[in-house]
């Protein structure tokens, strides 16, 4: 059984930082792109950041560009999201996901496996 487990969420003040981690088990994802998505109450799940299979290419939503950094360690089957200069509008449940391709996809339909999510709350 495939599992993606996120960790690292929490409550932080505006301007602060958090690091989210996602650990994969059940199979390796070294040939799959990985993505981070978020969903705020009453809103659709949206793409935040993605990284290709090798870690050599990353893509970010405009709203987080310059503040968030995605990385991966294929030897450890983990992917991380470093979030800095957090804003109240970053408050959401954050999900990691594994795509069915090697290249980064921004649509939720491109991802086969999802974690359970971790809450990030940014206070003003």
What distance separates the N and C termini? 40 Å
Order of helices and strands: EEEEEEEEEEE
Oligomer: single chain
The number of helical runs is 0
Query: Can you give the mean pLDDT?
Result: 96
The 3D shape can be described as globular
Number of strands: 11
Could you give a short account of the major beta sheet? 7 strands, mixed
Estimated radius of gyration: 13 Å
Low-confidence stretches: none
Strand content: over 45%
Helix content: under 10%
How would you classify the helix and strand content by structural class? mainly beta
Task: Provide keyphrases for this structure.
124 residues; mainly beta; 4-stranded antiparallel β-sheet; 50% strand
Describe the 3D structure.
With 124 residues, the protein is an all-beta fold. It has strands spanning 3-7, 10-13, 18-25, 34-39, 46-51, 58-60, 68-73, 78-83, 92-99, 111-114, 118-123. Helix content is 0%, strand content 50%. Strand 5 (46-51) and strand 6 form a beta hairpin. It starts with a strand and ends with a strand.
Summarize, please.
The protein is mainly β and 124 residues long.
